[in-house]
Amino acid sequence: MMEITLGLLIAFIVTYYSIPIIIKVSYEKKLFDLPNERKLHSNSISTLGGIGIFAGIVCSFLLSVGFADNSYGFQYLMAACIVTFFIGLKDDISNLSPYKKFLGHILAALILVIPHCAYLNNYGGVLGIYEVPPLIAYIISIVLIVLIINAFNLIDGMDGLAASVSIIACIGFFIFFFLNQKTELAAISAIITGALLAFLIFNRHPAKIFMGDTGALLLGLLFAYLAFAFINIHLKEGAVLAYKFQSPHAMAFILLFLPLFDTFRVFAIRILKGGSPFEADRNHLHHIILRLGFGTQKTVFFMISGAILFTGAGILLDKFGNNIALFTTIGIACSTMAVLVRKSGQINKQKSISGKESKKQNGFIRILNESRRIVNK
């Protein structure tokens, strides 16, 4: 327990004292994100908060996590984190093409997959798939890691959102690892939580700094690693667990549900429209909730509540198996999404009609005033 507490505190302190320095340097060197029609913020804000998160996590990991049991391949995790960090940093400072970023994500994934630190060859009957040949398992594992990395990058679009949703996922992983005495993995979950709590002090609305790709990509990689560890602990032969899930594959997905679901939905919309799945737009879940009239803080609260509710639903559905737990949760999310989109469309339509009527009234008033001016002459 001391290891876990120490890890959380070190991550919090390092991140907390790093962020103000990063903000100061960002403004001195003009390294900030400018507002535009797609973005929600109206001021120039630094996007280098991920540097503070990275510093807090790495320092805490090196100082507090024991290496007595290195079966989890911690050195490979740190190497992948460093690769991901520099990809995000380059993109935050001078922009990186989506395809170069994608290649970087694959490299980070390979560092984890090849030594089997994040490798899965048994898919628990999801869509009827159980064990697959090693080559297929390598490919699927890489695809899943890249998908999770991008999911957390895409959800980072509003003050406090990515950090808050990530903390909920961290708590879920932490509880499982802690109950099953997986101390090192519980410590990693606590370390991420500590760094994010410190970052959230500066990122809550109105934000003083964003995590940028540097932080979002790093979080995605770390959560991919934890999700694979979560599943493989369940699949390990002879493993005795104090608490285990009957549907670990589904539960790992549900713990990361909002980022993954929103990514699948947005990618599908972009592809169906004939565009690139990596092309930015305003079709994310938080954009839709904003269009319903919620402010930033209420939208973030709505998303946090959703993450907690979906986790609860996953726990209740766990006993029914991976497929039922997974697809029932997806079905609930799709139904909720359909209601939100429909309501958002109605509100936009009403605003459009009101805007046209307002223009007509303004035009009539201008004509009336002009007529009075002519008569008075």
Automatic annotation (TrEMBL):
Keyword Lipoprotein recorded: no
CDD domains in the cross-refs: GT_WecA_like (cd06853)
Keywords recorded for this protein, A-Z: Cell membrane, Membrane, Transferase, Transmembrane, Transmembrane helix
Compartments (UniProt record): Cell membrane
Superkingdom of origin: Bacteria
InterPro entries: Glycosyl_transferase_4 (IPR000715), PNAcMuramoyl-5peptid_Trfase_CS (IPR018480)
Keyword Membrane: yes
Membrane topology according to the record: Multi-pass membrane protein
PROSITE patterns given in the database record: MRAY_2
Bilayer-crossing regions: 6-27, 48-67, 73-90, 102-123, 135-154, 161-179, 185-203, 215-235, 250-272, 299-317, 323-341
Signal peptide from the UniProt entry: none
A family per Pfam: Glycos_transf_4
PANTHER family documented for this protein: PHOSPHO-N-ACETYLMURAMOYL-PENTAPEPTIDE-TRANSFERASE, UNDECAPRENYL-PHOSPHATE ALPHA-N-ACETYLGLUCOSAMINYL 1-PHOSPHATE TRANSFERASE
The protein, known as: MraY family glycosyltransferase
